[in-house]
Amino acid sequence: xxxxxxxxxxxxxxxxxxxxxxxxxxxxxxxxxxxxxxxxxxxxxxxxxxxxxxxxxxxxxxxxxxxxxxxxxxxxxxxxxxxxxxxxxxxxxxxxxxxxxxxxxxxxxxxxxxxxxxxxxxxxxxxxxxxxxxxxxxxxxxxxxxxxxxxxxxxxxxxxxxxxxxxxxxxxxxxxxxxxxxxxxxxxxxxxxxxxxxxxxxxxxxxxxxxxxxxxxxxxxxxxxxxxxxxxxxxxxxxxxxxxxxxxxxxxxxxxxxxxxxxxxxxxxxxxxxxxxxxxxxxxxxxxxxxxxxxxxxxxxxxxxxxxxx
Length: 310
Description:
Number of strands: 6
Largest sheet: 6 strands, mixed
Shape: elongated
Radius of gyration: 22 Å
CATH class of the largest domain: Alpha Beta
Number of domains: 2
Strand content: 5-15%
Low-confidence stretches: none
Number of helices: 13
CATH topology of the largest domain: Collagenase (Catalytic Domain)
Structural class: alpha/beta
Strand order of the largest sheet: 1-2-3-4-6-5
């Protein structure tokens, strides 16, 4: 058994595929068509297939037959619907609304797959995320709706743009994790884990601050800066930011250029001069960046965003 075979037709027309020999059927759950009883029958009947496939409207889930048997009593329709929703919610805050060609979502289903390796625990790469055996429950069971930070995070990596500088690769991804968390009606992790008081407040109280290098701020403390921008300007802030970056396709050869682009674009989409905000956060950029912000001739926010918290 060499693995699952996928066919991608060049047109929308149906195609016929002829197997000469050696093919085996694998258990296949299609949202809206397959019942839980049908699924159990397939798992029992197709015992030679090592892998199974579950298909939603936007997502495909692949896992070992062993894992599928372990999760056979789950509500697979609910899980697929949840995964579809996560993809939609994260695409929403990324501004993938189809308003222009560059803001269209991929027509391909997104792949979430079990991986045989135990490390990394979970990871993301082009158009797919992968989960070790220990990570699978958070992606392929009802836990995806309540304890799914890992999958929400890995899917979020698919939306990061070229303005993401090195120190925020594992930070801005959680703009999307927080989006999924909110949509599921859960308390913000930043609030639940008291990140505002434990990480952010002590950092902002320091006389000298460097957002990128402070040893105690951590990834979640750094996330507070981005969350404050959402609290100040709403979900539309990140939608506009991502759309502008896709439209402009800026060449950003290094982290200095990436930070500059983010700061200037944040001011443009919010239509506010965010100098005080970025200085308070200790963004390590030259004065020339603040001169460029001043040249935009934007008003200051009515309320300083760095004072906001959940």
